[in-house]
Specification:
By secondary structure, the protein is an alpha/beta fold. The chain is built from 16 helices and 13 strands. The strands form 2 sheets. An 8-stranded mixed β-sheet has the order 8-9-7-10-6-11-12-13, sandwiched between helices. A 5-stranded parallel β-sheet has the order 2-1-3-4-5, sandwiched between helices.
């Protein structure tokens, strides 16, 4: 939505109104008015035409909910967000029935309210675009974009990306594709031992011609069923790549695959910024190395500032070695976030990677394979049994450099 959000605050609590007004008057929003319940609120809403309305709701509920219902009729274009100290589901349901699009429970933070306002307006804009037929010619991608990022090299981002994509295929969660946006050391194709007939460069060079039907022409299929869009072999090829073109490629892949995994380098390039912004989920990878945790702290701050929605960030600890002085509890304490997933150390990962076979295929019964499959299940919403899953389909595919070198 262009311009600042114009907010009307409706609350009988004078202190609560004042606190919200002070906190929300900023670069992205302006409070155009405040009022109590009833006629005053309806009159101001009619005159000021706010783009969003915040309503404080407390016991007794009747008058507050009547105001919400009337506001929904007076300014039907403006989403109504209710905030309350009542956390029971019945109160929330009554607020939604009255016309609220969101229900926030106290204690509130200004960041939380601002984010809810932003999300409500974005949803309203999408709905308006669909109703007016201006939503664009492309269907919004239904696939989940999972961006794997870490602030330090050598912590296993590509290993996690390739194995996670393979695990999603092995548990029948849906189709998956890996996109390598590492502009210098991209080695997804090597890790999976697939031929580099096409790369992301070829796709972006023909971005004007790309559509849902022909995007598959630029992908290479791994024996697991996973598709790969690798980085080019020559680093200098990246000089002509525009972020807008990568954005378009990711959009099309999300429209044709259930899961798009983006393997990122340890630097915040323009292309990485696109992958982070478009991500449904960001897996922020760290090892239990002191420098990795320290760099992750900086990365987390930059991500919060850059993407404006840190709810999609998930901390994943990869136990890259068997000996570490730092614990996962230390990671949570330093990053001030819970660890979402832990991948155990397993020396078999290295040997599998050297031969271009994901460990979830090469060593399906190992602890690390089970952990990665369970991570895939958590992301896909699929329950994974403890019994290990063996190889995925064994269709014949072209082989890459490692197969030719080692005869495997």
């Amino acid at each position: 939505m262009a311009g600042n959000a114009r907010i009307l605050i409706v609350d009988q609590d004078l202190e609560a109104k004042a606190d919200l007004e002070k906190g929300l008057n900023g670069a992205d929003s302006v409070v155009v008015g405040t009022s109590g319940y009833g006629a005053e609120a309806l009159t101001l809403a009619s005159e000021l035409r706010p783009t969003v309305v915040l309503v404080g709701v407390e016991e007794p509920l009747a008058r507050a909910l009547q105001t919400v219902e009337s506001l929904a009729e007076v300014v039907p274009h403006a989403p109504i967000l209710v905030y309350s100290s009542l956390s029971d589901s019945d109160s929330a349901r009554k607020a939604v029935v009255a016309g609220a699009c969101d229900y926030l429970t106290k204690p509130l933070t200004i960041d939380e309210v601002a984010k809810a306002v932003k999300n409500a307006l974005a949803q309203q804009e999408r709905r308006r675009a669909l109703l007016t037929g201006n939503g664009g010619s492309d269907v919004k991608g239904a696939g989940m974009i999972i961006t794997v990022f870490g602030a330090k090299g050598g912590i296993g981002k590509t290993t996690v990306s390739t194995n996670l994509a393979t695990a999603l295929s092995s548990i029948n969660a849906g189709s998956s594709v890996i996109v390598d946006v590492d502009t210098v050391f991209g080695d997804t194709a090597m890790m999976l031992d697939v031929p580099m007939e096409m790369s992301l460069i070829e796709a972006v060079n023909h971005v004007g011609e790309l559509n849902r039907d022909n995007i598959s022409d630029y992908l290479t299929r791994h024996q697991s069923g996973v598709h790969v869009l690798p980085a080019p072999f020559e680093p200098m090829d990246w000089r002509s790549v525009e972020p807008e073109a990568v954005d378009r490629v990711l959009t099309l892949l999300a429209q044709t695959h259930d899961f798009v995994l983006v393997d990122c380098p340890a630097t915040l390039t323009d292309l990485v910024a696109v992958a982070l912004e478009k991500a449904t989920i960001i897996l922020l990878l760290t090892s239990l190395d002191i420098t990795s945790v320290k760099d992750s702290t900086t990365a987390l701050k930059l991500l919060k500032t850059g993407i404006g929605d840190d709810d999609k960030i998930r901390i994943v600890v990869n136990h890259a070695t068997g000996a570490n002085s730092v614990t996962e509890a230390d990671v949570s304490k330093v990053l001030r976030r819970e660890v979402f997933w832990s991948i155990p150390h397993d020396p078999e990962i290295a040997s599998s990677a050297q031969l271009g076979t994901p460990v979830v295929i090469d060593r399906p019964y190992s602890k690390v394979s089970q952990a990665i499959r369970e991570l895939a299940g958590a992301l896909a919403g699929v329950e994974i049994p403890r019994a290990a899953i063996g190889r995925t389909n064994g269709d014949t595919v072209q082989t890459g450099l490692l197969t030719k070198l080692f005869g495997r």
